[in-house]
Amino acid sequence: MREINVKEITDSVKKLCVESNCILNDDIYSVLKKSVETEVSEIGKDILEKIVKNADLAKEKMKPICQDTGMAVIFIEIGQEVHISGGNLTAAINEGVKQGYSEGFLRKSVVEDPLIRVNTNDNTPAIIHYDITDGDRIKITVAPKGFGSENMSRLYMLKPSQGENGVKEAVIKTVTLAGSNPCPPMVVGVGIGGNFEHSAYLAKKALLRPIGNYSDKPHIKALEKELFEKVNKTGIGPQGLGGKTTVMGLNIETFATHIAGLPVAVNISCHVTRHREIIL
Amino acid sequence: MSIKINTPITRQMAENLKAGDIVEISGIIYTARDAAHKRMLEEYEKSGELPFDIKNQTIYFAGPSPAKPGEPIGSVGPTTSYRMDSYSPKTIELGLTAMIGKGSRNEEVVEAMKKYKAVYIGAIGGAGALLSSHIKKCDVIAYPDLGAEAVHRLEVYNFPGIVIIDSYGNNLYETEVLKYKEI
Question: Which of A186, A201, B39, B124 shows its CA 20 to 30 Å from the CA of B51?
Answer without folding.
Answer: B124
